[in-house]
Amino acid sequence: MLKFIFSFLIFVSLSASTFGQAPVKWYTFEEALDLMKVEKRKIVIDVYTDWCGWCKRMDKSTFQKQHISNYLNENYYPVKLDAEQKETINFAGQKFKFVDQGKGKSYHEFALAVTRGQLSYPTVVFIDEDLNIIQSIPGFRSAAEFEMIMTYFGENKHKEEPWSSYQKSYTPMRLKFKQNPADKPKPVLPAKFNGN
User: Fold this and answer.
1) What is the pTM of this model?
2) Is 180 contained in some domain?
3) How many independent structural domains does the chain possess?
4) Is 11 exposed, middle or buried (CB count within 10 Å of its CB: 0-12, 13-18, 19+)?
5) pLDDT digits (tens, 9 = 90+) for 110-144
6) Which of these, 47, 86, 112, 179, is most buried using a 10 Å CB contact count?
């Protein structure tokens, strides 16, 4: 019996630590365009390369945070774009291709286009529901920085408030939940825990 209780407590603690946690569901740009036909959302593109250390760090630290991944999955179509991918991307009647200029200088035309000619890794590009680039933001961003940025564009605050005032008045998500417990997601327990 003691072994069962111990196993149950371990299961509950592991479940509690991962509850509500879903990794970012990354799409290709083409998949995001197909999804836009069903439900319009903004697109966020993570422009990276395989050799970029800061890109890997942002994947492991920023994008792995539960509140970041949940928000991106619910409000955007997140796209991973390898700036050195070989596959052609068709968009708006144009073919974007890989340009081979030798090691360290090669790039994909689509990455160049969405970063407006400013290739830097990582760069996160925000695109609105009408497929217009809102802004590209180069460089590594911590979870706290990225949370503020993704909500600024995700909630259309960029249309009504300057970034400087948004930064000053921003309340982090973790504090918003403390202020309004009704906003916290409620755990969904298996049927046997609900007495069924």
Assistant:
1) 0.78
2) no
3) 1
4) exposed
5) 999 999 999 999 999 999 999 999 999 999 999 99
6) 47
